[in-house]
Amino acid sequence: MNKYLTVNELTEQIRSCLEGSFSEVCVEGEISNCRPASSGHLYFSLKDSNAKIDAVMFKNRLRTVNFEPKDGMMLRIRGSLSVYAPRGTYSIVCEEMELAGAGAILAMLEKRKQKLAAEGLFDSERKKALPRFPETVGVVSSPTGAAVRDILNILARRAPGIKIKILPAPVQGEEAAWIIASRIRQANQWNRQGLKFADALIVGRGGGSLEDLLPFSDEEVVRAVAESEIPVVSAVGHEIDWALCDFAADLRAPTPSAAAELVSENYTTVANSVRNAADSFMNVIKTRLERARLLLKPFDPGDMEYRFRSILQPRLVRLDDAKEALINAVKEKNADFRGRIELACAVLEAGSPLAAMQRGFSVVTDSKGAVIRNAADAKKGETLVIRPLKGAIHAAIMDISN
């Protein structure tokens, strides 16, 4: 106790103790944190409900394993404890590995899967498309299970026009597989007899353990699904669960709720398309009405009056200006004509005999009315008529002088 150990010395004592005492161990547990390294070694953990221990299987021993280790598998391993001094951790170095418990079930399912796949039951060429608008959907499941309730609720909400027919069957237990397969074949038989039982089938159940889901991996169920003339949607368990009928079905849904959504997808798509088209149509109509309203706005009575005024005002101004110019031009012409007339009148008046007569001149004519312009034209003794401005004077020619 008076001597202090170094970390390395303590670790070496632990190593010799552990590795000497546990030179060979056989452990059963669930594999987790499975992480293959680029070097080819496999690092993982084994756990149960209360504890966990790290483990490693080196590349040269991993070649002897005839399956691919994955998280969740139950394994039985044989190896020895080893202490890794740099980290102060211990782990199991595996020499042998085999499936145990659920792992055995997985191995059995894998073997059955390979057998059925070899028969072509999983070929994509066998897959049938779901009807676009199924009128009736058959559900093969427990009538009291949560899966049926979910399917009913979703179809009632998404496609209330779809008829739903329940084919009751237990979803776990010894008789479950036989009854499930019988229900699938029964639905197909009714269709062939012209009863048109269903346009699509949903086969499934809610989540459960690997053992609970085994009926849906039964060979009879898988064959019934593959042989079904009615398109089948497999909906077994939750998203992480699977069954062999998933591979034989025409379509796999991760959950029963998702299966209900798949069979009603086109209803929802069309309904959404109609709604989108209606919204788009209404938006186009509103846009065009708004555009028409904007185009008609200038033709509002008040606005029209303003527009007409704006058009007429300059023309009225031009008309008033033209009228004033015309009036002024007419006045100028009138003044010009008036001046010329006055001048002509003055000239006429100046040359008028009356004007000369007003100044004292008279017109002398002979008895025949001929004007005497030259004294030589008169004869002594003739009677002359002298016409002053007013009246007439008759005179006899007494003498003529040139």
Task: Offer a quick outline of the entry.
Helices cover 44% and strands 21% of the residues. It is α/β, with parallel strands linked by helices and 402 residues long. Among the domains are: 94 residues, Nucleic acid-binding proteins (OB fold (Dihydrolipoamide Acetyltransferase, E2P), Beta Barrel), CATH 2.40.50.140; 136 residues, Succinyl-CoA synthetase domains (Rossmann fold, 3-Layer(aba) Sandwich), CATH 3.40.50.261; 42 residues, no CATH class.
Description:
It contains eleven helices and 13 strands. Among the domains are: 7-100, Nucleic acid-binding proteins (OB fold (Dihydrolipoamide Acetyltransferase, E2P), Beta Barrel), CATH 2.40.50; 128-263, Rossmann fold; 355-396, no CATH class. Helices cover 44% and strands 21% of the residues. It has 402 residues and is of the alpha/beta class. A hairpin with a 4-residue loop joins strand 2 (42-47) and strand 3. Strands 1-2-3-5-4 form a five-stranded mixed β-barrel. Strands 7-6-8-9-10 form a five-stranded parallel sheet, sandwiched between helices. A three-stranded antiparallel sheet has the order 11-12-13, with no helix packed on it. Helix 5 runs parallel beside helix 6 (219-227). The radius of gyration is 64 Å and the shape is rod-shaped. The model has no long low-confidence stretch (mean pLDDT 85).
Order of helices and strands: HEEEHEEHEHEHEHEHEHHHHEEE
The N- and C-terminal alpha carbons lie at a distance of 199 Å
Structural class: alpha/beta
At the third CATH level, what is the topology name of the domain at 128-263? Rossmann fold
Q: Which CATH first-tier class of the domain at 128-263 would you pick?
A: Alpha Beta
Low-confidence stretches: none
Mean pLDDT: 85
Number of helices: 11
Strand order across the largest sheet = 1-2-3-5-4
Q: What is the CATH architecture descriptor of the domain at 128-263?
A: 3-Layer(aba) Sandwich
How big a fraction of the residues is strand?
A: 15-25%
How is the main sheet built?
Answer: 5 strands, mixed, barrel
Shape, principal axes of CA atoms? rod-shaped
